[in-house]
Every structure is written in C-alpha cells, then in structure tokens.
Amino acid sequence: MSSRITKTLSVAALTAALAACSSVPLDQAGSGSGTGAGASTGMVMDPFNPQSPLAQQRSVYFEFDSYVVPEQYRNVVEMHSSYLTANGQQRIRVEGHADARGGSEYNLALGQRRSEAVARMMTLMGVRADQIETISFGKERPKAMGNTEADYAENRRADINYQR
Predict the structure, then answer these.
(1) Suppose 38 and one of 43, 50, 59, 76 were both cysteines; which one would form an S-S bond, judging by CB atoms 3.0 to 4.6 Å apart?
(2) Residue limits of the OmpA-like domain (predicted)?
(3) CA distance 135 to 120
(4) What angle do CA 88, 53, 140 make, to 5 degrees?
C-alpha cells in the first residue's frame, strides 16, 4: 500500500514540475486559435485580432524601382509564413503597390513583381502556393497622398491581407 502512495505522490510531483516549466500559458494551451509562431512567446497570433503582430505588421516596403525583399522585412515574412504553415486552411492575398512616379503599366508590373517576391519567399519558407494569391494595384491605391520622398517610400510596398 505504501508503494502505491509513493508512486501516486511521485506522479503528482512530476506533473507539477512539468507544468511549472511550461513556456505556454496554461490558459491558452487548448484554445485552438491557431497560435502559430507566437505560441512559445505568449503573443496572440491571430491575423484578425488588432493586438496581434500578424495584424499590425502586414507590409513589406521596397527601395525605389526594386522588387527585392529587403533583409529588414525578412522577419515579417517569416512570422506570416510560420502562421500560414501552421494554419493550412488560411489563405492570403499579397497586394503589390508602387509610388506615383512612372507610368501606370510600368507600376502595375512592378507591383506584381513585388507581390510575387513576397509570395516566393513565403513558399520557400514552407507555405503552400495554393494559400497565396498575388495582385498588383500599381500606383492606384497609395497609402500616403503627398509627393515627398517619405510619401513615395510609404507607397512602395506589398501588403499581406488575410482572407476570411
């Protein structure tokens, strides 16, 4: 009988020790919300929650006349890619944009190359191609309306938009 009590107490102590070592808050462990990349950090990773980094960091900005994803935005693409690989049912649309300089046709093509560059990086990180749609709006949907260099820089981007 005493060995049975000893085993029970040992199992209880081991369970308590393992629970104390958990890096995931226990109240979020079974939420089924598709936490993706933020599970170990305790961040809410939900693209439809305004407090989530997935909702707050959706744009990748580019240099003038370029469609190369800058190194400083790699972590944004990685964060979204991690979420998408963990949530295979989720779909996105990557929308490419350009600043007001240049012709409409040129800017549509440049915006498309920007959206495809982000999509290509995501597929290299494990996202399935059928989860991603690419489109270009060229210079037709500016984020900043002025004509300063700062305004132009704000408009040279690819936006990651989640589909409901």
Answers:
(1) 43
(2) 49-164
(3) 13
(4) 85
Rg (CA), the chain: 22
Q: What is the pLDDT of residues 75-121, one digit of tens each?
A: 999 999 999 999 999 999 999 999 999 999 999 999 999 999 999 99
* Mean pLDDT in residue range 118-129: 98
Find the domain containing 112 and state its range: 53-163
Token pair of 135, please?
Answer: 């489109």
Kindly state the tokens that stand for 16.
């308590």
Domain membership flag for residue 42: no
Asked if residue 32 is part of any domain, the answer here is: no
Pairing of β 92-97 and β 157-162: antiparallel
CA distances from 12 to 5, 6, 9, 18, 121 (A): 10, 10, 5, 10, 46
Does any domain span residue 15? no
Name the percent of the chain lying above pLDDT 70. 74
